[in-house]
Amino acid sequence: MDPLPLFDTNPSPAPSETLEEGAVLLRAFATAAAPALVEEVSRIEQAAPFRHLVTPGGYPMSVAMTNCGRVGWVSDRTGYRYDPVDPDTGAPWPAMPRAFLDLAMRAAAEAGFPGYDPDDCLINRYVAGAKLGLHQDRDENDAWAPIVSVSLGLPAVFLWGGRRRSDPLRRLRLESGDVVVWGGPARFVYHGVAPLKDGLDPLTGAVRLNLTFRKVF
Ligand code: SIN
Ligand code: FE2
Description:
Elements: E1 17-20, E2 23-26, H1 34-47, E3 64-69, E4 72-76, E5 79-83, H2 98-110, E6 120-126, E7 132-135, E8 147-153, E9 156-160, E10 170-174, E11 179-182, E12 191-193, E13 208-214
Antiparallel strand pairs: 1-2, 2-11, 3-6, 4-5, 6-13, 7-12, 8-11, 8-13, 9-10, 9-12
Bound molecules: succinic acid and fe (ii) ion.
Fe (ii) ion is lined by residues 135, 137, 191.
């Protein structure tokens, strides 16, 4: 008789969970759509290449970014803003693909925010070592509509804090296909991403992609 395996080599995924009122982690919500989403990212980056934006303090960010939608989030020495035009190309940002909008709307509705109509999808690309410091998303006029954040490719540790920067942090492991939605009373929770560990993902290779949808106006 074969011995029982010492380790479960195919553990069942962690369950979806409510992080707090207005915030949920939907495990594997985007897994089925993931290949199509990644293909759309390749299309978008041909028109609006990934770039390392410079913070108002003058430092290039380790995460590379691009956008699609009616506006795009950008940063430079003058500050953060939503711009209808890609400052690198002078052209409008690529339109938001139907598959993006569809996924974002379904995730928002699942989290209790029906009728979601995002103006921007900010696309973040992380390589090993890239990270995103603790921050609030507060450049949007709409202070209630959720942020919908879709993880694709390599796993990451998402830092989930509170309304004050000094609040304790939870460390949530996000796998490809996981979606986090936060809005309403959780809209201004501090969050960030710990330095990415290297690895190879069958879908994205050596990178993690993150789509964050925002309702700006
Ligand atoms: C963000 O906070 O804008 C991105 C979060 C992530 O990459 O998971
Ligand atoms: Fe954010």
